[in-house]
Amino acid sequence: MNNFLRHRKWVLVALVLLMVSAGAAIGEDRIQLAILLDTSNSMDGLIDQAKSQLWKVVNELARARRGGKAPALEVALFEYGNDGLPESQGYIRKVSDLTTDLDRISEELFKLTTDGGSEYCGMVIDRAVQKLSWSSAKDVLKVIYIAGNEEFTQGPDPYTAACARAIRKGIIVNTIFCGAFQEGVDGMWKDGALLADGTYMSIDQDQVVEAVETPYDKDIVRLGNELNSTYVGYGSEGETLKNRQAAQDSNAASMGAEATVQRSVAKAGAAYSNAGWDLLDAVANKSVDLAKMKDDELPNAMRKMSLPQKEKYVQDLAAHRADIQKKINAANEKRRVFVAHAVKNAPAKSTLDEAILASVKDQAQKKGYSIK
């Protein structure tokens, strides 16, 4: 009997370990978003919209909740249709795998240039389906957005097979045609979306939307800059990646006041995490243990501290960061009300961010998320 109970105990332990290791298959609070951008000659406007609207999209998705919990947000980036890319690869490049490192996505967006080209929609969708680190969990929202302006039928890989393969893996494909709505329909962009439970949309990639200035903008930007002082780089790349954070502030500023405000808001949100280089985020998610860190992994200011001093230093900075983030979020809620009132009777925008947000909210709802 004892042997039986002992055997049963270890079977139960094994099952628990199996469930933990397969946690992603049981259910996760996660949104995975892959953006596939046409970088051929005529797409400079599309790239500019992606640069200027990235943080707005991030902020809206960061408002998602399921069971009161905010999901992790992972973003991936592909470019296609650029003659500067190898023909052997179908003029396609995986710029970034799915990542929570949103500064990296911003950095890579600002490196994109246009040239060419031959735009193989079926091939880039298939490449994204096959090469990105998609979750196997059924509860995860997995979406692809592909934007371009040529026929959806180009290239050796049929879009029909690529879209069918995507949806079999639970990956929704949304298509965004840069041009007239009916032209995209005729070019089979709508058909591609329908095959993968997605939404077809058309946009004006060259449309520049005038930002709404609000009384809260200056405070939000000031607080966003102040927030940078709470980041503590650790490890061999800590200081380099902290500098990258400041560089992405500058990149956002180069796209105008709206992008600067949206980035400041993003840094106060749950989706903005830098545990790979920031000590506070790493301690918070338990990816590092202060007691086990070597002095040469820490910034100079912390190297002569005792462990209690290190812990207090991190705790105090974390409290200061939380206070700044609270102020940014409070100001942003007032800003959202102000903007909503200002644009109440304005014509609808035909831009990349509006296309993404108009569809992803409905698709998130089907996975049990609410985005308000």
Give a verbal description of the structure:
The protein is α/β, with parallel strands linked by helices and 372 residues long. The protein folds into 2 domains: 203 residues, 3-Layer(aba) Sandwich (Rossmann fold); 126 residues, no CATH class. Helices cover 48% and strands 13% of the residues. It has a 6-stranded mixed β-sheet with strand order 4-3-1-5-6-7, with helices on both faces. The longest helix has 36 residues. The chain is globular, with a radius of gyration of 23 Å.
Key terms for this structure?
372 residues, alpha/beta, Rossmann fold, 2 domains, six-stranded mixed sheet, two-stranded antiparallel ribbon, 14 helices, globular
How would the blueprint of this fold be written?
Blueprint: H1 2-21, H2 23-26, E1 30-38, H3 44-61, E2 64-65, E3 72-80, E4 92-99, H4 102-109, H5 121-131, E5 141-148, H6 159-168, E6 172-178, H7 181-186, H8 189-195, E7 200-203, H9 217-227, H10 238-254, H11 257-266, H12 279-284, H13 307-342, H14 352-366, E8 370-371
Parallel strand pairs: 1-3, 1-5, 5-6, 6-7
Antiparallel strand pairs: 2-8, 3-4
